[in-house]
Amino acid sequence: MAKRVVIIGAGPAGLTAAYELLSRSDDYEVVILEKAKKVGGIARSVDCNGNIMDVGGHRFLTDVPEINNWWKEMLPTVLEQERLSRIYFNQKFYDYPVKLRMETIKNMGIGTTFVVCGSFLKSKILKRRVESLEDYYIKQFGKKMYQMFFENYTENLWGRHPRDISPEYGMQRVNDKISVIGLLKDMIIGDSAVEDKKKDVFLYPELGPGQMWETVANKVRDMGGKIVLGAEVVGIKRGKKNEVKSVVYMLGEKKCLLKSDYVLSSMPMKDLVMAMDDVPRKYLKIAKELPYRDYMIIGVLVSKLVNAVPDDWIYIHDKNVKMGRVQIYNNWSPSLVRDAEHTVWLGLEYFCNEGDELWRMNDKKFAEMAILELKKIKLIDDNEKILDFHIEREKKAYPAYFGSYPQIDELRRYLDKIPNLFLVGRNGQHRYNNMDHSMMAAIEAVKNILSGSAEKDNIWNVNASKEHQ
Ligand SMILES: Cc1cc2nc3c(=O)[nH]c(=O)nc-3n(C[C@H](O)[C@H](O)[C@H](O)COP(=O)(O)OP(=O)(O)OC[C@H]3O[C@@H](n4cnc5c(N)ncnc54)[C@H](O)[C@@H]3O)c2cc1C
After folding, report:
1. What domains are there in the chain, each with its CATH number?
2. Which residues line ligand 1 (CB under 6 A)?
3. Are the C-beta atoms of 44 and 19 separated by less than 8 Å?
4. Mean pLDDT across the stretch 435-448?
5. pTM more than 0.90
6. Pairing relation of β-strands 386-399 and 292-302?
């Protein structure tokens, strides 16, 4: 009898696990239960009247050659794109990562440049203790650069000030390869961000990230895997040996029960624990208090921008608007846009909390606000007409590193003792993963199932060290 592996979630982690398991062995029956009506998770593509939205702009970028090859073999038509993204601050563009070249100095003015350099040098001389994300940024970039390029943006992203956030986020995510020598080199030799983009190449499916994950899903189905869409897992039943015996899910109004020999979960850790019976109160509390940041993106179709920009996306650092970033989908892949020659398809990103003012705003009002913001930052002309728009709301887009996060290892150790349960993925492990990390965690879990090991450390070791980044 084939052993049944139930995978919760058809995002990059769940689909990679299913694909890897089915392609390596015939001994397993694979069933994916996916709450949404389509596959891809956060990395899905959404078709809006022929214009395709990427929920966030997903670069397929990794330092692991095996994952890079996996993507290329899975989708041989995948594009190789050159990245350009800049910071929009005080109505001027700055390189990201920040470079001290002539244009930057011109934009900042001589006075501010001196303050930036002075505070940067000071941060290199004085060894600041790092207890918060604010400390981390100031230590890496100096106070002035932190105030200009990180403080406001980070507060907008997480909904709390960097001084109240663990430094771990910065250590995992921020490009801190900025050195005195590097800055001087930028200034003396001078180079342009536009020229520089050639050095920064990523893969991108012509029809957005969902194309990759729909391809994987089709292969999983071809190999006999089953993907149940619209199936929300609401219960995890355990047996006498603490093993998961079955998974309960809702299919519309219908409650269904599926026996399982193994469970791989990429659903949020918080929801998973809440779905379990008999969890000791101490662990339930940690799970309940795990925080997230939610996210909205509005696709806006316009006939043109005030000035054409080459960027894939732009970080918006402007206290007068709520938007965090703008994606220019035409620059990711013209195939995302029905008429790329005559229209520009933008994605305006907003960080919010489920149930807050932004989240609850009705679509029409939200669109009006977003469009007004585009005009405020002078990306579109005051007379520009909006040809179409579409809004996506993403719950738990960002697992956050505050709340009960410092106790997460206790919860992890409790869950690790369930021998046939493997936690994988971004929300599955409550870790700020990119797609490659989610995939690698899934591959490690598959290796454990195939070798009959109940080991979990190898899964948690993915994306755990700064060296990996
Ligand atoms: C704005 C933004 C930009 C990003 N940009 C990049 C980028 O450029 N490059 C990159 O590599 N990564 C990027 N990421 C991260 C990337 O989206 C994630 O790493 C990836 O989607 C994680 O895959 P996953 O399978 O772990 O989780 P998810 O994509 O979250 O998939 C989990 C799946 O589980 C399902 N699920 C949840 N609860 C249940 C339940 N109870 N029952 C059944 N199913 C359930 C969900 O519907 C979802 O489909 C970005 C993320 C965001 C938010």
Report:
1. 3-39+206-290+402-460 (3.50.50.60), 96-199 (1.10.3110), 292-399 (3.90.660.20)
2. 8-14, 33-36, 41-43, 56-59, 232-233, 266-267, 271, 295, 397, 425-428, 433-436, 438
3. no
4. 97
5. yes
6. antiparallel
